[in-house]
Write a structure and sequence with these properties.
The protein is mostly helical. The protein contains 4 helices and 3 strands. A hairpin with a 2-residue loop joins strand 1 (66-70) and strand 2 (73-77).
Length: 113
């Protein structure tokens, strides 16, 4: 490599360093603002993902509930447990009083899926 290119590279490096040193406060403020905005955006994304996940889980959890009546007692089955009559939704209770029924379609209509 010829000497003039080495000298030119060194001069450019010195000019670049001088420019960074001369404008360090502005560069630091700009980087701080950029990182602050990035942190803010990720906080919004995290919050939105949490809400979306919770709403999705609520729908999935609700879809997997099964209501039935046996020996005059009402049951809700997610992992089967006995429930009181007032814990069973009225639309399910009406159908259960008539006969054992699959309420999957009604659940889908109530959830809008």
């Amino acid at each position: 490599m010829p000497i003039p290119f080495i000298v030119a590279g060194a001069v450019l490096a010195l000019i670049g360093t001088a420019a960074v040193v001369a404008n360090w406060d502005e560069i630091k403020d700009w980087l701080s603002a950029v990182f602050s905005k990035i942190k803010e955006v990720f906080a919004h994304i995290k919050h939105a993902a949490k809400i979306f996940g919770q709403k999705l889980w609520d729908k999935i959890k609700y879809i997997t509930k099964l209501y039935y009546k046996q020996d005059g007692k009402y049951y809700e089955e997610t992992t089967t447990r006995e429930v009181t009559e007032n814990q069973v939704p009225s639309w399910a209770k009406e159908q259960l009083d008539e006969e054992e029924t699959d309420v999957t379609n009604e659940m889908k209509l109530n959830l809008g899926i």
